[in-house]
Amino acid sequence: MKSNKQTKDIIYVHKNIDRQYVVSYGINFQEFALNNPQPLRNLLLIKHQYEHGAFNIHTHLEYVEQEDMNKIINDGVGSYGDFCWIDFDEEAGVNELNGQEIAELLYMGHLKQPLDAPFYSKLNNRYAYLSHDDGWFNKIYYRDFDDFYQLLGSTVAAKLGTVKGGKGLFGMKKEKQYPDVGSQIITSFKEKIKEGMVISIEKAIVSRGKIEIPIWVIGDYFNMDEMIEDYQQFSKSPANGLLVYDRKTKSWNSSIR
Q1: Residues near 72 by Cβ (< 8 Å), separated by ≥ 6?
Q2: For 173-203, how does the pLDDT look when each residue is reduced to its tens digit (9 = 90+)?
Q3: Residue 37 three-state SS
Q4: pTM of this structure
Q5: How far is CA 55 from CA 90, 101, 107, 142, in A?
C-alpha cells in the first residue's frame, strides 16, 4: 500500500558507484527540481503524461523548456505511472541524435536502465531520471555525484521544515526554516549510502537544543514495499548514525556509529 505520508517522512537512498546511479524513495520530482544545486535546464521527456510539452520532430519526443519548468514541477507527476526524462542544453543537440541514440533513450525509458552510461555529449546532460510512481521508486543517473549530495542535504532540510511544523510547501527556498545539510556532512555517510540507508525524519527526536534525525543502514532494494517493511524492523534497533541540527548555532553535524 503506497502511503503518501510515508514518502514524506523517510528517505531511502542507495548509490551504485560503478553505474553512476542512485535508487531512492521519498524524494519526488518537485523536490528534486526545487532542491537541485543547479536549476534544471530543458527536459526531453521519454515516458510521461505531461500535456503541455513542445514536440521535437526529429525524435518524436516531447520536451519542456527551462522557462516552462514550473508547469511540470506542479503537474503532479506522481500520478503518471512512469516518468522518465533526460536533460539537455540546446534543441540543436537533440536534433543531432542518431537512430541508435534515440533507440537507446526509448530502451532506457522502457526498462529503467540504459544500455550504456546515459550521458550524451550532444545533449550535455547531467542526469537521466527514471521513476515509477514518482517519489516511490526513482533511479537517477548522475554525471557528477556532488549534485546528489547537495540535493540530498537540501531535501532533508526542506522535509524537516514540512514535517516538523513548518509551513514551507516542499521547502521552497525562501520559506525554508532550516539551512541545508552541507555536502561534507552528507558525504560522511558515503559508505552507508553505498550499502543503502534510510534517513528517518518521522523518527527525528526534537528537543530544546537540537534535532536528531536517525539513519539506518538497511541494504539494497528495488522493491520499495520490502524496503519499508524491513525499515520498520530495523528502526526498532539503535540507529547507525545521526544527522544533528543544533538549534542554537543553526548548524548541522553528524555522528556515525
Answers
A1: 29, 43, 50, 52, 53, 64
A2: 444 589 999 999 999 999 999 999 999 999 9
A3: coil
A4: 0.92
A5: 14, 18, 20, 26
